[in-house]
Amino acid sequence: MVAPIPQIKLSSGHLMPSIGFGCWKLDKPTAGEQVYEAIKAGYRLFDGAEDYGNEKEIGDGVKKAIDEGIVKREELFLVSKLWNNYHDPKNVETALDRTLADLKTDYVDLFYIHFPIAFKFVPLEEKYPPAFYCGDGDNFHYEDVPILETWKALEKLVASGKIRSIGVSNFPGALLLDLLRGATIKPAVLQVEHHPYLQQPRLIEFAQKAGLTVTAYSSFGPQSFVEMNQGRALKTPPLFENEVIKAIAAKHNRAPAEVLLRWSAQRGIAVIPKSNLPERLVQNRGFNSFDLTKEDFEEIAKLDINLRFNDPWDWDHIPIFV
Question: CA angle, corner 315, sides to 226 and 140, nearest 5?
């Protein structure tokens, strides 16, 4: 029998699994079955987003598992993210309702602001998800919507029951600090790119001290970005092949992936790995059964080169992290 995944109590009062299944880049034809198999393997948190374009398929997988009695809706923790085109308060609920319809649920457990960037609104019937489309071909257009206005709209949706907890993704410290000053409902979770090449210790320390749970994405570093043919990722040695990570893995008789996930988890950071392989699904869940040593942490700390793979500066010179 597979042991249950440890839970984290959020500042909102809700419990969140500390290990989830990341849904970025799940192919539509197989996404539903992958989610279904992940539920059978014991996963309960599914980290999706409007921009991923596969929420309907994720919902199909969830519904199949519920219909077969494998899991109840209240045992799942469904996550989505508000995309950049829907930041205007009058459009926030419209976007959320599309997510709820696609996921076939009445509420999401956690809803993030995906990026602190407001693109021009694109009607759902014109293009959904719009990705970088702003109604004018390949040209970027923006709206003058302060983050706090978007946040206030999300707070109302928490009060309505459509959202259980709200959080932010890809926020630097200064924007997080500003949001905390104006929010009535404080963000419960901060999701950031986090791996040994980009460790962000000050941001994580600040967020945790402020009462936020931190979730890491891209825990395996360049791995997720190589298939996107991103130059930085192609030129960066894979963490699975990094000599430091391999040596630590050998010492503990573990796979490199388990070391990378345990490195985050041991510091109170939730993780959302993805895998298409059933055996890796199980392996990625089992990393909490060993501990890295102080020396292991010191060696991994030396790998930090502040190398970010997901940077809006690459889109349109958007200065989130400069």
Answer: 145
Q: What is the mean pLDDT of the chain?
A: 95
Burial of 122 (0-12, 13-18, 19+ CB in 10 A): buried
Catalytic position from the list 36, 52, 86, 217: 52
Distance of alpha carbon 173 from alpha carbon 268, whole angstroms: 18
Q: Quote the CA–CA distance of 160 and 195 in Å, as a whole number.
A: 36
Residues of the chain with CATH 3.20.20.100: 15-187
Domain 15-187 annotated CATH 3.20.20.100: yes
| pLDDT score, position 226 | 80
Instruction: Give the predicted TM-score (pTM) of the model.
Output: 0.96
52 is catalytic: yes
